[in-house]
Amino acid sequence: MPKLGMEPIRKAALVKATIVEIGRAGSLDVTVSQIAKRAGMSSALAHHYFGSKEEIFLAAMRHILTLYGAEVRGALAAAQGPEGRLRAVLTASFSPGNFRREAVSAWLNFWVLAQSVPEARRLLAVYQRRLRSNLLAGLRPLAGARAESVADGLGALIDGLYLREVLKSGAPDGAAAVTVALDYLTSQLKGPRA
Amino acid sequence: MPKLGMEPIRKAALVKATIVEIGRAGSLDVTVSQIAKRAGMSSALAHHYFGSKEEIFLAAMRHILTLYGAEVRGALAAAQGPEGRLRAVLTASFSPGNFRREAVSAWLNFWVLAQSVPEARRLLAVYQRRLRSNLLAGLRPLAGARAESVADGLGALIDGLYLREVLKSGAPDGAAAVTVALDYLTSQLKGPRA
DNA sequence: AAGTTTATTGACTCGTCAATCAACAAAAAC
DNA sequence: GTTTTTGTTGATTGACGAGTCAATAAACTT
User: Fold this and answer.
1) DSSP H helical segments within chain A, as ranges?
2) In chain A, which residues from 5 to 34 place their CB closer than 7 Å to nucleic acid strand C?
3) What are phi and psi of A100, to 5 degrees?
4) For A87-127, how does the pLDDT look when each residue is reduced to its tens digit (9 = 90+)?
5) Which helix (H) or strand (E) holds B90?
6) B120 at interface of A, judged by CB pairs closer than 8 A
7) How far apart are CA A100 and CA A67, in angstroms?
8) d(CA B156, CA B161)
């Protein structure tokens, strides 16, 4: 009963299933069979559409980054003024969606992947550049020449806060992370030292 | 030719070899045979001394944390005054040793492990508590009541800066990371807001 | 209607790997 | 000097997993 035009549907299902399975395992130690089963097809079909397990992982990574990007863009669209834009980036970065088990596991494992898979490293670089550029857009009116260095610090702080929140025991607290980041921002903008 | 008292020697060799292999693979996708071979023994002996692969990994993680702890302690011993102590913690955290491939891979993978292996999570919590306590010791004389929140922000910033340095392409720059962290510190200490 | 393209899977290959075990060797204990 | 403890490995087990392939079937083309 083959219906035509299945490819994008199957691929999307596999990507979703991959992220779920990575979340369940907490690692990339996930078999193609597990993924395919969760996506409701045979493992042979998964190989047919993606060619290899690594391609499946990379597609999943692209999807995670796309989701994050869309969230930021959405928040940005509703933001008013430079402070509003910065706040939008922060709240999007620490939104509940990013603290779901699947997202957490995906991010941590993508950092690991980036060490050895060039394409994964490239994708992560894209994410970082986009974040930096978003921060800079909000910072330039407020920090002038210091915008660049504040953006770099803030970018690192965002990643670090995320890491802390997801690794600590107990439920992560995105709002607290936003507060700390805003506090960093305030103190950096107050005292524009040498 | 069995000499007695081999156990600690063999275990130490296995731990070292494990860290090297994790560095080479960039992941925990490392076989006991690879580790044992690098350590100059049969895989059976590795199992004999550690019981399971997971135990080997945990021993490696303990070793990495021990190394880091020793480095911090050493730097702290030579430090003068609160500012000196804080600077010591930062330089130790961004020392060249922590940017060696093996160390990087170990840290990234231990973050992943911490998601699913309780003992790994515990070890990471120990590291974070120790870091926090070291920062607090330096911060209390300088920041008073704000010490706690500054320590939390600085701790996250350290992790985030580390992550950025190790994931960016090109050689990591520990000194730059220290500078950013010190700048954070300065601006936080200047404006003790409400 | 014959041929082509797309969808789909069960069965299979070939490899790997964690863990176990039997056996051997040397030192220590008795 | 025999028994026990410690060190050591080759061989094996038992399981699993990525990727391939032949075969089947529906749809679309000509």
Assistant:
1) 7-25, 32-38, 43-50, 53-77, 81-93, 101-116, 118-143, 147-167, 174-190
2) 5-7, 10
3) -65, 150
4) 999 999 999 999 999 999 999 999 999 999 999 999 999 99
5) helix B81-93
6) no
7) 13
8) 9
Calculated CA dihedral for residues B28, B33, B34, B35, nearest 10 degrees: 70
Instruction: Centre a 10 Å sphere on the Cβ of residue A110 and count the other Cβ atoms it contains.
Output: 24
Query: A93, A120 in Cβ contact below 8 A?
Result: no
Contacts of B104 in chain A (CB under 8 A): 115
Do A109 and B104 make contact, defined as CB atoms within 8 angstroms?
no
Which residues lie closer than 8 Å to A121 by C-beta, 6 or more apart? Answer: A114, A115, B167, B169
Ramachandran region, residue B171 (left: φ > 0; alpha: ψ -120 to 50; beta: rest): beta
Q: Which two tokens stand for residue B95?
A: 């020392």
The reply to whether residue A156 touches residue B149, judged by beta carbons under 8 angstroms, is no
Give the C-alpha separation, A179 to B153, whole Å: 10
CB atoms within 10 A of CB B113: 23
CA atoms of B101 and B20, how far apart (whole Å) = 8
What is the CB neighbour count within 10 angstroms for residue B93?
23
Say which amino acid occupies B144: G
Q: What pLDDT is attached to residue B191?
A: 65
Residue B160 in contact with partner chain A when CB distance is under 8 A: yes
What pLDDT does B190 receive?
81
- B155's CB contacts (< 8 A; 6+ apart) are A160, A164, B128, B131, B132, B135
| Mean pLDDT within B66-94 | 97
Which residues, other chains included, contact B30 with Cβ-Cβ below 8 Å and sequence gap of 6+? B18, B21, B22, B24
Flag whether the ipTM exceeds 0.90. Answer: yes
Distance (Å, rounded) from C-alpha A1 to C-alpha A7?
15
Residues recorded for chain A: 194
The token pair that represents B36 in the structure block:
């044992």
Q: Which residue has the tokens 């807001």?
A: B193
Of A82, A101, A103, the residue nearest A151 (C-alpha): A82
